[in-house]
Amino acid sequence: MPSDVNHVVEFPGGYTRSVGPVIGRFLSELRDGRMVGVRTSGGRVLVPPTEYDPDTGDDVTGEFVEVGPVGTVTTWSWVAHPAKEHPFDRPFAWVLVRPDGADTALVHALDAGVFDAGAEAPKFLKTGMRVRPKWRAERTGTIGDIECFLPEVTMINPQAKLEFRLSGGRALHRYLEGIAQGRILGSRCPVCEAVIVPMKETCPRDGVPTTEEVELPDVGTLTTYAVNNIPDPRAPEVPFVSGYVLLDGAGVPLLTLIAGVPADQVRMGMRVKAAWKPREEWSPSVGNIKWFEPVDEPDVPFDEIKDYL
Ligand SMILES: [Zn+2]
């Protein structure tokens, strides 16, 4: 039918050869103020869309699905001291956001409000929080058409913030102290006995204070990952891979970049090790670890990591 043909060739304004048709469609939709994912033959919706299903290597179906714009933060990393190439000149968070209707998440910046340099992460910043994109008025068909994400509901008030500064910031501070010495610190929950990393004062599962500081090795297993085709100042190249690494002995995985391996060779269960910046560049920053890269060890069977996805 002629209408089918029209659908196939229509890339409203933004199709360029360099990014390929799938990501080109994604960027074109962004320019129009929409987010789309692509459906895999298995029914999952990938955002940002890729030409191949990262799980099976099969071509995706070509069916684009509008997602979001509201989404859920699946993980986050607070940047207390932004660098000059960062999108904000004040503290902000990198977040992985899974738009409603999507099965994967994309990396973007979250504007959590105005904080002084070096401030602790605000209490409302947490996995599961709802966020929505802040669109630029003038859009050009790049990921930058989303200026940033914003919290969907503002729950902060000065009293809560004060309380948090008194009681809630010690774990992150302690974690960064460890990182400044090349150590990765977690905290053990007395109920479920899981080691939470980065260390937290409260077990997210049981809601009880953690009681024991535990140093973890900088070696672990990649549990899940996403291939990202959008440039990121922290990533060495495009495409780059972001993923969750379950450090040996940890009870929760850590979000990080994966490098030192072509994106199409990254596997669930792959054993990886932290690549640290040179020691003289260390500071109390999660940026001391540039990324994780593969080590020459056999992959961990899926059964052993399936509870940590
Ligand atoms: Zn627990």
Question: How would you describe this structure to a colleague?
Answer:
The chain has 309 residues and is α+β, with helices and mostly antiparallel strands. The chain is 15% helix and 30% strand. The protein is built from 5 helices and 16 strands. Strands 6-5-4-7-8 form a 5-stranded antiparallel β-sheet, with no helix packed on it. The longest helix is centred in the N-terminal third of the chain and has 12 residues. The chain starts with a helix and ends with a helix. The N terminus is likely disordered. The site of zinc ion (ZN) has 7 residues, from loops. The site of zinc ion has 7 residues, from loops.
Strands across the major sheet, in which order? 6-5-4-7-8
- Principal-axis shape equals globular
Could you state the oligomeric state of the chains shown?
Answer: single chain
What structural category arises from helix and sheet content? alpha+beta
C-alpha Rg (nearest Å): 20 Å
> What helical percentage do the residues reach?
10-25%
Molecules bound to protein: zinc ion
Question: Could you list some keywords that capture this structure?
Answer:
309 residues, alpha+beta, five-stranded antiparallel beta sheet, 16 strands, 30% strand, globular, binds zinc ion
